[in-house]
User: Fold this.
Amino acid sequence: MAEPRNSEVDSVTLPRGASTIRRFASGFRVPNPAELADRFGILVAWAVIIAMFSVVEPNTFFTFANLRIVLGTQAVLLILALALLLPLTVGEFDLSVTGALGIALILIGYLNIIRGWSILAAIAAALLSGVVIGLVNVFFVMVVRVESIVVTLGSGTMWLGVGYGIWGANISGVSDALVSVTRNNFILDVPFAFWYGLLLTLLFWYLYALTPLGRYLYFVGANRQVSRLSGIPVSAIRAGSLMASAIVSSIAGIILAGVLGGSGPNIAAGYLLPAFAAVFLGATAISPGRFNPLGTFIAVYFLITGITGLELLGFSGWVENVFYGASLVLAVALSRLAARRRFTQ
Assistant:
């Protein structure tokens, strides 16, 4: 008698549900130590940094007050880094994110305080500015076919200049309604802004991990031609990533206006390097070699933990630029190595 095939065994001889269990078990493998180190090494390094600074500065670093400050003040950087995540995943650079953030920040202050608009109208104008910036980027990248790094470098610089032209001085006194929903404390006495960043991280994780669009983003970034031949709408995904990046950056600007209680023309530019450092460093964690939301979240707070500790030790002023710059170079190198290992396995 012929021996039954595996499918016949699954459907005939095994009890209900056993075939699913067997398939799951056959596909499951215990990660090796090297793989675990690649995925979670940054968490270990983060724990070591926290422990080190806690011993050196126990009265200032290892306190709940310091934790609240770190979580609340870096929410804008987290949201901006998530905005960068989308175009980078599909192989595009968006250097205009700080321009979009800066315009939104200036519009909130100028329209709400100087012009007397309601805060909702000012927020609507700030979001509309993100749509306009995204459309400009999409037109030159997708229609004129200029490289995204060139387009967004130019447009980002231009929008920062436009923001300075709208109002070239710092403004304070943004509506209490916006301040209260960003700066005020919420769960665990942590400001609302942090929870917005966490919620956006989880939404991005859902998009990347559990939806077809998330897989398409990775496919397009890996090989556009093969993706196009496979029926994936490559052009729409590239355009959508640039649009979403600009809009999310504008949201970051709106939240920053609430956190600061005002706006200024020289604030936004300083966020570009930290955002890139966080995204590339995040690509070395959780899913090494891939840009991913959870890795970005961890990287943002890993970086600010190190900077905060060094500043409490007296290394203020210059240390932030040095730390972010070195982290970006190291993160890009590590993410490239992780990607090579993943493709050669």
The first strand starts at residue 171 and ends at 172. The chain is about 75% helix and 0% strand. The beta strands are 171-172, 262-263.
